[in-house]
Design brief:
alpha/beta; four-stranded parallel sheet; 7 helices; about 40% helix; globular
């Protein structure tokens, strides 16, 4: 079953963290992982967010986010984000199942903007 079918057969996820909790995780070294498409990301993303393709993230979270960066945090706390929390919320358990500390932002980037945080346009940095 493809990722699209997997997500289409599920309701809105529960158990995410709110914006203040997400900002606390990020302030303490957490990593913001954007699981949207490239076009969505380029239209506006949270500063510092890593754009990661969902399938790659599920296959190998650490490599999908960090590549071969020798300075990568060895025990990251990933905060997944998408527009509404739907995609990121359904992906978070797969990341946890790989042994990583992971959460998703309830309400996604909509909650991010409503909380007064900014989005910036442009392509991902490599």
């Amino acid at each position: 079953m493809g990722l699209r079918n997997f997500l289409a057969n599920r309701g809105m996820p529960t158990g995410g963290i709110d914006l203040p909790a997400a900002l606390t995780v990020l302030a303490n070294g957490g990593v913001l992982v954007d699981v949207r498409t490239l076009l969505e990301y380029e239209a506006g993303h949270a500063p510092g967010a890593h754009l990661v393709e969902a399938k790659e993230l599920v296959d190998d979270p650490f490599t999908a986010v960090y590549g071969d960066d020798p300075l990568a945090e060895p025990d990251p706390h990933f905060v997944l984000v998408c527009d509404t929390g739907f995609r990121s919320g359904h992906l978070v358990q797969a990341i946890r199942d790989k042994g990583y500390d992971a959460d998703f932002l309830t309400g996604g980037l909509r909650a991010w903007r409503q909380g007064g945080e900014i989005l910036i346009p442009g392509p991902p940095r490599h």
